[in-house]
Specification:
8-stranded antiparallel β-sheet; 8 strands; 46% helix; 10 helices; binds the ligand C=CC1=C(C)/C(=C/C2=NC(=C3\c4[nH]c(Cc5[nH]c(C=O)c(C)c5CC)c(C)c4C(=O)[C@@H]3C(=O)OC)/[C@@H](CCC(=O)O)[C@@H]2C)NC1=O; alpha+beta; 274 residues
């Protein structure tokens, strides 16, 4: 049932306590802000939770649409776990919020991609939905006035933090100039140090960035002309389509097999179609 899928999702069963607490807190913050504006998840139970034949990979997905008087198109939350042949495990947790074309404000995305207890890639971004060169006011309103870059600079100061350059140039081109795309690696098996970095740095910074999105993006009053709306629709559609291909297109069939990948990606694409 709905609540069963949701409670399993909220367990974030395969990650450390600080990592789980962060995801649970971010989701609670979004749900508390939008309350009844968010409709219950309508994904089929075998998309809300799925695993591959031998149970090596398992995942949970929650997508909640915004109702008619909400600026939210949908909120997507997910966790993915896969044991690796090397004995380690891959854990990816993500939360993204997509706004409707009634506003041109940036979306929100956070992804924690853990390939070992001491290696983590963090993506934390408010991806722009307009070209920043053509619309300098957009850059000023959402990225300069909000002081977003101070959070990126704060994280950069941690010795274990290095910039992460996605192998996809497209992904790099979608990200904001203030995007946090970092690789964190703690030395000689520092699992405690990794959990400390998540608890004392990634947690507060992620909540700050989400707070900026909630207060300055999701609630922004933006009047759009028809031509702007057409441009936005086209651009949103292209990005949604492409990020699924890049993020999931190869990893899902590899992790879950073609049949399950097709079923889950099919469900996601239904929501992503602008
Ligand atoms: C808008 C800004 C975005 C940025 C900046 C961004 C970045 C990256 N994500 C990657 C990945 C990734 N993400 C997810 C979550 C997820 N993504 C979507 C997208 O629609 C959905 C619907 C879901 C929930 C199901 C999974 C499962 C998954 C991978 O397997 C993949 C990965 O970890 O490979 C190592 C990396 C791919 C490129 C690279 O290897 O460098 C890269 C870091 N992804 C954005 O969307």
């Amino acid at each position: 049932s709905q609540s069963e899928g949701r409670s399993k999702f909220m367990e974030f069963p395969f990650v450390s306590a600080p990592h789980k607490n962060l995801m649970v807190d971010l989701l609670a913050t979004v749900e508390n802000r939008f309350q009844s504006q968010l409709l219950p998840c309508t994904l089929p139970p075998d998309v809300q939770y799925y695993q591959n034949q031998n149970g090596i990979a398992q995942a949970s997905l929650q997508i909640r649409s915004g109702n008619d008087n909400s600026p939210i198109d949908f909120i997507l939350g997910s966790w993915i776990h896969s044991e690796l042949p090397t004995g380690g495990a891959l854990n990816i947790t993500s939360l993204s919020a997509y706004l409707k074309r009634s506003t041109d404000a940036p979306n929100f995305v956070i992804e924690l991609i853990q390939s070992s207890p001491t290696k983590l890639v963090l993506i934390l971004d408010l991806p722009p939905r307009k070209d920043l060169v053509l619309w300098p006011d957009y850059l000023q309103t959402f990225y300069e006035q909000t002081q977003l870059d101070t959070h990126r600079q704060a994280l950069e100061k941690i010795p274990e933090v290095q910039p992460y350059f996605s192998s996809s140039l497209y992904i790099r081109s979608v990200a904001a100039p203030t995007a946090i795309m970092v690789r964190i690696e703690t030395q000689d098996g520092g699992v405690e140090r990794m959990e400390e970095i998540i608890k004392n740095h990634i947690d507060p910074i992620s909540k700050e960035v989400l707070g900026i999105w909630l207060d300055h993006c999701a609630c922004a009053r933006r009047e759009l002309g028809d031509s702007e709306r057409v441009y936005l629709e086209k651009r949103d559609g292209l990005i949604r389509k492409k990020t699924i291909e890049i993020d999931l297109g190869s990893s899902f069939p590899r992790l879950f097999g073609q049949e399950i990948a097709d079923r889950v990606l099919g469900s996601i694409r239904e929501f992503f179609a602008v």
